[in-house]
Amino acid sequence: MREYTFERPRSVDEAVRRSGSGTAFLAGGTTLVDLMKLEVMTPGRVLDINRLPLRGVDTTGGVLRIGALERMSDVAADPRVRHGHPLLSRALELSASGQLRNMASIGGNLLQRTRCGYFRDVTTPCNKRQPGSGCPAVEGENRMHAVLGTSDSCVATHPSDLAVALVALDAKVRLTGADGVRTVDLADFYLLPGGTPHLEHDLRPGELVTDVLVPRLDRASRSTYLKVRDRQSFEFALASAAVVVRRDGDVIREARVAVGGMGTRPWRLPAVEKALAGQRATEATYTAAAAKAVDGARPLRHNAFKPELMKRTLIRALLELEQTR
Protein backbone atom coordinates (compact mmCIF):
# COMPACT_ATOMS: atom_id res chain seq x y z
CA MET A 1 0.00 0.00 0.00
CA ARG A 2 1.32 3.42 -0.93
CA GLU A 3 1.43 6.46 1.31
CA TYR A 4 -1.66 8.69 1.32
CA THR A 5 -3.25 11.59 3.20
CA PHE A 6 -6.26 10.80 5.42
CA GLU A 7 -8.94 13.42 6.10
CA ARG A 8 -12.42 13.57 7.64
CA PRO A 9 -14.66 16.21 6.02
CA ARG A 10 -17.41 17.55 8.27
CA SER A 11 -20.11 18.04 5.63
CA VAL A 12 -21.14 16.80 2.20
CA ASP A 13 -20.23 20.17 0.69
CA GLU A 14 -16.77 19.99 2.26
CA ALA A 15 -16.28 16.42 0.99
CA VAL A 16 -17.21 17.46 -2.54
CA ARG A 17 -15.01 20.54 -2.34
CA ARG A 18 -11.98 18.55 -1.16
CA SER A 19 -12.37 15.79 -3.74
CA GLY A 20 -10.48 15.80 -6.99
CA SER A 21 -7.97 13.85 -9.02
CA GLY A 22 -6.25 11.23 -6.88
CA THR A 23 -8.91 11.35 -4.15
CA ALA A 24 -11.05 8.44 -2.93
CA PHE A 25 -14.06 8.42 -0.59
CA LEU A 26 -13.97 5.87 2.25
CA ALA A 27 -17.18 4.40 3.67
CA GLY A 28 -17.11 0.74 4.79
CA GLY A 29 -13.79 0.23 3.04
CA THR A 30 -14.53 -3.40 2.11
CA THR A 31 -13.54 -2.76 -1.51
CA LEU A 32 -11.30 0.31 -1.36
CA VAL A 33 -8.90 -1.00 1.29
CA ASP A 34 -8.42 -4.30 -0.55
CA LEU A 35 -7.64 -2.52 -3.81
CA MET A 36 -5.25 -0.12 -2.09
CA LYS A 37 -3.36 -3.06 -0.58
CA LEU A 38 -3.08 -4.59 -4.05
CA GLU A 39 -2.09 -1.17 -5.46
CA VAL A 40 -4.89 -1.44 -8.02
CA MET A 41 -6.09 1.87 -6.60
CA THR A 42 -3.46 4.31 -5.36
CA PRO A 43 -5.22 7.49 -4.17
CA GLY A 44 -3.02 10.22 -2.79
CA ARG A 45 -5.82 11.35 -0.48
CA VAL A 46 -8.60 9.39 1.25
CA LEU A 47 -11.67 11.22 2.56
CA ASP A 48 -13.45 9.35 5.37
CA ILE A 49 -17.14 10.21 4.90
CA ASN A 50 -18.54 8.05 7.70
CA ARG A 51 -19.43 11.07 9.88
CA LEU A 52 -21.53 12.70 7.16
CA PRO A 53 -25.35 12.75 7.53
CA LEU A 54 -25.98 10.14 4.84
CA ARG A 55 -27.88 7.56 6.86
CA GLY A 56 -31.49 6.69 7.45
CA VAL A 57 -34.25 4.56 5.92
CA ASP A 58 -37.70 6.08 5.41
CA THR A 59 -40.76 5.82 3.21
CA THR A 60 -41.81 9.44 2.92
CA GLY A 61 -44.17 10.05 0.01
CA GLY A 62 -44.40 6.36 -0.79
CA VAL A 63 -40.75 6.18 -1.91
CA LEU A 64 -38.24 4.07 -0.02
CA ARG A 65 -35.17 6.22 0.66
CA ILE A 66 -31.96 4.55 1.80
CA GLY A 67 -29.01 6.66 2.90
CA ALA A 68 -25.77 5.81 1.12
CA LEU A 69 -23.92 5.19 4.41
CA GLU A 70 -26.45 2.72 5.77
CA ARG A 71 -24.81 -0.67 6.37
CA MET A 72 -26.00 -3.59 4.28
CA SER A 73 -26.99 -5.73 7.27
CA ASP A 74 -29.08 -2.93 8.79
CA VAL A 75 -30.97 -2.30 5.56
CA ALA A 76 -31.62 -6.01 5.01
CA ALA A 77 -33.13 -6.29 8.51
CA ASP A 78 -35.21 -3.11 8.35
CA PRO A 79 -38.95 -4.07 8.47
CA ARG A 80 -39.84 -1.46 5.83
CA VAL A 81 -37.41 -3.11 3.43
CA ARG A 82 -38.08 -6.71 4.43
CA HIS A 83 -41.85 -6.42 4.06
CA GLY A 84 -42.16 -3.78 1.36
CA HIS A 85 -39.29 -4.86 -0.92
CA PRO A 86 -38.35 -8.43 0.07
CA LEU A 87 -36.07 -8.97 -2.93
CA LEU A 88 -33.79 -6.19 -1.59
CA SER A 89 -33.40 -7.95 1.76
CA ARG A 90 -32.74 -11.22 -0.02
CA ALA A 91 -30.18 -9.71 -2.40
CA LEU A 92 -28.35 -8.05 0.49
CA GLU A 93 -28.28 -11.19 2.62
CA LEU A 94 -26.88 -13.21 -0.29
CA SER A 95 -24.23 -10.61 -1.09
CA ALA A 96 -21.43 -11.38 1.36
CA SER A 97 -20.55 -12.78 4.77
CA GLY A 98 -22.22 -11.38 7.86
CA GLN A 99 -19.03 -9.61 8.91
CA LEU A 100 -18.73 -7.82 5.58
CA ARG A 101 -22.43 -6.86 5.52
CA ASN A 102 -21.96 -5.27 8.95
CA MET A 103 -19.25 -3.00 7.51
CA ALA A 104 -20.16 -2.44 3.86
CA SER A 105 -22.27 0.58 2.92
CA ILE A 106 -25.11 0.74 0.42
CA GLY A 107 -23.36 3.38 -1.68
CA GLY A 108 -20.09 1.49 -1.59
CA ASN A 109 -21.78 -1.71 -2.68
CA LEU A 110 -23.23 0.02 -5.74
CA LEU A 111 -19.81 1.45 -6.62
CA GLN A 112 -17.69 -1.64 -5.93
CA ARG A 113 -15.18 -2.60 -8.60
CA THR A 114 -15.21 -5.78 -10.62
CA ARG A 115 -13.84 -9.02 -9.18
CA CYS A 116 -12.08 -9.86 -12.47
CA GLY A 117 -8.75 -11.45 -11.53
CA TYR A 118 -6.91 -9.61 -14.28
CA PHE A 119 -8.16 -6.26 -12.99
CA ARG A 120 -6.86 -7.11 -9.51
CA ASP A 121 -3.47 -8.36 -10.68
CA VAL A 122 -1.27 -5.35 -11.42
CA THR A 123 1.25 -7.57 -13.23
CA THR A 124 -1.25 -8.22 -16.06
CA PRO A 125 -2.77 -5.85 -18.64
CA CYS A 126 -6.31 -4.54 -18.02
CA ASN A 127 -8.14 -1.86 -19.98
CA LYS A 128 -10.27 -1.06 -16.95
CA ARG A 129 -7.22 -0.43 -14.78
CA GLN A 130 -4.87 0.89 -17.50
CA PRO A 131 -6.71 2.03 -20.65
CA GLY A 132 -5.26 0.70 -23.86
CA SER A 133 -3.23 -2.10 -22.27
CA GLY A 134 -5.55 -4.92 -23.42
CA CYS A 135 -8.01 -7.45 -22.01
CA PRO A 136 -6.39 -10.86 -21.38
CA ALA A 137 -9.73 -12.28 -20.18
CA VAL A 138 -11.06 -12.39 -23.76
CA GLU A 139 -8.70 -15.26 -24.60
CA GLY A 140 -7.69 -16.26 -21.08
CA GLU A 141 -9.53 -17.56 -18.00
CA ASN A 142 -13.09 -16.27 -18.37
CA ARG A 143 -15.45 -18.69 -16.64
CA MET A 144 -16.85 -16.00 -14.31
CA HIS A 145 -16.99 -13.30 -16.97
CA ALA A 146 -19.87 -11.62 -18.76
CA VAL A 147 -21.80 -12.73 -21.84
CA LEU A 148 -23.99 -9.61 -22.15
CA GLY A 149 -22.85 -6.05 -22.84
CA THR A 150 -19.27 -7.08 -23.52
CA SER A 151 -16.81 -5.53 -25.96
CA ASP A 152 -13.39 -6.41 -27.33
CA SER A 153 -11.99 -4.10 -24.63
CA CYS A 154 -13.64 -5.65 -21.56
CA VAL A 155 -15.68 -8.69 -20.53
CA ALA A 156 -15.66 -8.12 -16.75
CA THR A 157 -18.86 -8.97 -14.89
CA HIS A 158 -20.58 -6.42 -12.68
CA PRO A 159 -20.33 -7.74 -9.08
CA SER A 160 -23.24 -6.19 -7.12
CA ASP A 161 -26.27 -8.30 -6.17
CA LEU A 162 -28.02 -5.26 -4.72
CA ALA A 163 -27.71 -3.31 -7.97
CA VAL A 164 -29.49 -6.08 -9.90
CA ALA A 165 -32.44 -6.01 -7.49
CA LEU A 166 -32.59 -2.21 -7.56
CA VAL A 167 -32.55 -2.09 -11.37
CA ALA A 168 -35.53 -4.45 -11.43
CA LEU A 169 -37.30 -2.01 -9.10
CA ASP A 170 -36.62 1.08 -11.28
CA ALA A 171 -34.54 2.61 -8.48
CA LYS A 172 -32.67 5.90 -8.73
CA VAL A 173 -29.54 7.28 -7.11
CA ARG A 174 -29.20 10.83 -5.82
CA LEU A 175 -25.81 12.43 -6.41
CA THR A 176 -24.26 15.57 -4.94
CA GLY A 177 -21.37 17.35 -6.63
CA ALA A 178 -19.90 20.75 -7.42
CA ASP A 179 -22.83 21.49 -9.75
CA GLY A 180 -25.46 20.63 -7.14
CA VAL A 181 -27.80 17.66 -6.67
CA ARG A 182 -29.09 15.42 -9.45
CA THR A 183 -31.02 12.15 -9.63
CA VAL A 184 -30.18 9.37 -12.10
CA ASP A 185 -31.94 6.12 -12.96
CA LEU A 186 -29.73 3.34 -11.64
CA ALA A 187 -30.11 1.44 -14.92
CA ASP A 188 -28.53 4.40 -16.72
CA PHE A 189 -25.94 5.07 -14.02
CA TYR A 190 -23.84 2.07 -15.06
CA LEU A 191 -22.02 2.45 -18.38
CA LEU A 192 -21.29 -0.24 -20.96
CA PRO A 193 -17.55 -0.81 -21.47
CA GLY A 194 -17.39 -0.19 -25.22
CA GLY A 195 -13.92 1.16 -25.90
CA THR A 196 -13.70 2.97 -22.53
CA PRO A 197 -14.13 0.31 -19.82
CA HIS A 198 -12.33 2.51 -17.27
CA LEU A 199 -15.45 4.75 -17.29
CA GLU A 200 -17.86 2.65 -15.23
CA HIS A 201 -20.49 5.11 -13.99
CA ASP A 202 -22.28 8.31 -14.87
CA LEU A 203 -20.47 9.87 -11.94
CA ARG A 204 -18.96 13.31 -12.46
CA PRO A 205 -15.62 14.23 -10.85
CA GLY A 206 -16.08 14.77 -7.12
CA GLU A 207 -19.70 13.57 -7.03
CA LEU A 208 -20.91 11.59 -4.06
CA VAL A 209 -23.79 9.10 -3.90
CA THR A 210 -26.03 10.31 -1.08
CA ASP A 211 -29.27 8.30 -1.36
CA VAL A 212 -30.97 5.44 -3.13
CA LEU A 213 -34.64 5.99 -4.03
CA VAL A 214 -36.95 3.03 -4.67
CA PRO A 215 -40.56 3.39 -5.90
CA ARG A 216 -43.28 1.68 -3.88
CA LEU A 217 -44.34 -1.73 -5.18
CA ASP A 218 -47.96 -2.37 -6.09
CA ARG A 219 -49.64 -4.27 -3.24
CA ALA A 220 -50.41 -7.17 -5.60
CA SER A 221 -46.75 -7.56 -6.59
CA ARG A 222 -44.55 -10.43 -5.50
CA SER A 223 -40.77 -10.34 -5.75
CA THR A 224 -37.71 -12.50 -5.18
CA TYR A 225 -33.97 -12.63 -5.77
CA LEU A 226 -32.28 -15.90 -6.68
CA LYS A 227 -28.51 -16.34 -6.77
CA VAL A 228 -26.64 -19.31 -8.24
CA ARG A 229 -22.98 -19.62 -7.22
CA ASP A 230 -20.19 -22.16 -6.82
CA ARG A 231 -20.57 -22.33 -3.05
CA GLN A 232 -23.36 -21.38 -0.68
CA SER A 233 -21.53 -18.68 1.30
CA PHE A 234 -19.51 -15.60 0.35
CA GLU A 235 -19.28 -16.11 -3.40
CA PHE A 236 -20.12 -13.96 -6.39
CA ALA A 237 -22.92 -14.93 -8.74
CA LEU A 238 -22.54 -17.19 -11.73
CA ALA A 239 -26.12 -16.19 -12.42
CA SER A 240 -28.77 -14.31 -10.49
CA ALA A 241 -32.29 -13.11 -11.17
CA ALA A 242 -34.36 -10.32 -9.63
CA VAL A 243 -38.03 -10.77 -10.47
CA VAL A 244 -41.09 -8.66 -9.69
CA VAL A 245 -44.48 -9.91 -10.89
CA ARG A 246 -47.97 -8.41 -10.52
CA ARG A 247 -50.73 -10.90 -11.16
CA ASP A 248 -54.48 -10.82 -11.50
CA GLY A 249 -55.50 -14.35 -10.65
CA ASP A 250 -53.50 -16.61 -12.95
CA VAL A 251 -52.66 -13.84 -15.42
CA ILE A 252 -49.43 -11.85 -15.24
CA ARG A 253 -50.24 -8.16 -15.63
CA GLU A 254 -46.73 -6.79 -15.25
CA ALA A 255 -43.23 -8.18 -14.81
CA ARG A 256 -39.85 -6.62 -14.09
CA VAL A 257 -36.79 -8.77 -14.59
CA ALA A 258 -33.05 -8.16 -14.21
CA VAL A 259 -30.15 -10.60 -14.09
CA GLY A 260 -26.68 -10.57 -12.58
CA GLY A 261 -23.52 -12.58 -13.12
CA MET A 262 -24.16 -12.25 -16.85
CA GLY A 263 -23.53 -8.65 -17.86
CA THR A 264 -20.96 -5.92 -17.65
CA ARG A 265 -23.64 -4.04 -15.72
CA PRO A 266 -26.91 -5.10 -14.00
CA TRP A 267 -28.91 -6.38 -16.97
CA ARG A 268 -32.62 -5.58 -17.40
CA LEU A 269 -34.55 -7.93 -19.71
CA PRO A 270 -37.42 -6.00 -21.38
CA ALA A 271 -38.00 -8.76 -23.95
CA VAL A 272 -38.64 -11.25 -21.14
CA GLU A 273 -40.92 -8.78 -19.36
CA LYS A 274 -42.94 -8.30 -22.55
CA ALA A 275 -43.20 -12.04 -23.12
CA LEU A 276 -44.58 -12.54 -19.58
CA ALA A 277 -47.13 -9.70 -19.58
CA GLY A 278 -50.68 -10.84 -20.33
CA GLN A 279 -49.81 -14.54 -20.13
CA ARG A 280 -50.95 -17.21 -17.69
CA ALA A 281 -48.49 -17.90 -14.90
CA THR A 282 -47.36 -21.38 -15.91
CA GLU A 283 -43.99 -23.09 -16.28
CA ALA A 284 -44.53 -23.18 -20.05
CA THR A 285 -44.95 -19.40 -20.06
CA TYR A 286 -41.84 -18.95 -17.96
CA THR A 287 -39.81 -21.25 -20.22
CA ALA A 288 -40.88 -19.44 -23.39
CA ALA A 289 -40.13 -16.03 -21.85
CA ALA A 290 -36.75 -17.13 -20.47
CA ALA A 291 -35.63 -18.14 -23.97
CA LYS A 292 -35.55 -14.43 -24.81
CA ALA A 293 -33.11 -13.74 -21.96
CA VAL A 294 -30.14 -14.86 -24.04
CA ASP A 295 -30.73 -12.47 -26.96
CA GLY A 296 -27.40 -10.83 -27.81
CA ALA A 297 -25.33 -13.09 -25.55
CA ARG A 298 -21.67 -13.54 -26.56
CA PRO A 299 -20.27 -16.55 -24.68
CA LEU A 300 -16.53 -17.05 -24.33
CA ARG A 301 -14.49 -20.24 -24.24
CA HIS A 302 -14.98 -21.02 -20.55
CA ASN A 303 -18.43 -19.51 -19.90
CA ALA A 304 -20.46 -21.00 -22.76
CA PHE A 305 -22.67 -22.60 -20.08
CA LYS A 306 -23.92 -19.22 -18.87
CA PRO A 307 -26.80 -18.56 -21.35
CA GLU A 308 -28.44 -21.86 -20.42
CA LEU A 309 -27.78 -21.23 -16.74
CA MET A 310 -29.37 -17.80 -17.08
CA LYS A 311 -32.55 -19.29 -18.53
CA ARG A 312 -32.79 -21.94 -15.82
CA THR A 313 -32.14 -19.43 -13.05
CA LEU A 314 -34.88 -17.17 -14.35
CA ILE A 315 -37.40 -20.00 -14.63
CA ARG A 316 -36.60 -21.15 -11.10
CA ALA A 317 -37.00 -17.61 -9.73
CA LEU A 318 -40.41 -17.27 -11.38
CA LEU A 319 -41.48 -20.64 -10.01
CA GLU A 320 -40.34 -19.58 -6.53
CA LEU A 321 -42.85 -16.73 -6.66
CA GLU A 322 -45.64 -19.31 -6.83
CA GLN A 323 -44.73 -20.35 -3.29
CA THR A 324 -45.11 -16.80 -1.92
CA ARG A 325 -48.75 -16.35 -2.85
UniProtKB/TrEMBL annotation:
The molecular function GO annotations come to: FAD binding; oxidoreductase activity
Name the PANTHER family on file.
Answer: XANTHINE DEHYDROGENASE SUBUNIT C-RELATED (PTHR42659:SF2)
Q: Which organism is it from?
A: Umezawaea tangerina
Question: InterPro entries, from UniProt?
Answer: CO_DH_flav_C, CO_DH_flav_C_dom_sf, Diverse_Substr_Oxidored, FAD-bd_PCMH, FAD-bd_PCMH-like_sf, FAD-bd_PCMH_sub1, FAD-bd_PCMH_sub2, Mopterin_DH_FAD-bd
Keyword vocabulary terms for this entry: FAD, Flavoprotein, Oxidoreductase
Please report the stretch or stretches of sequence annotated as the FAD-binding PCMH-type domain: 1-219
The protein's superkingdom reads Bacteria
What's the protein called, per UniProt?
Xanthine dehydrogenase YagS FAD-binding subunit
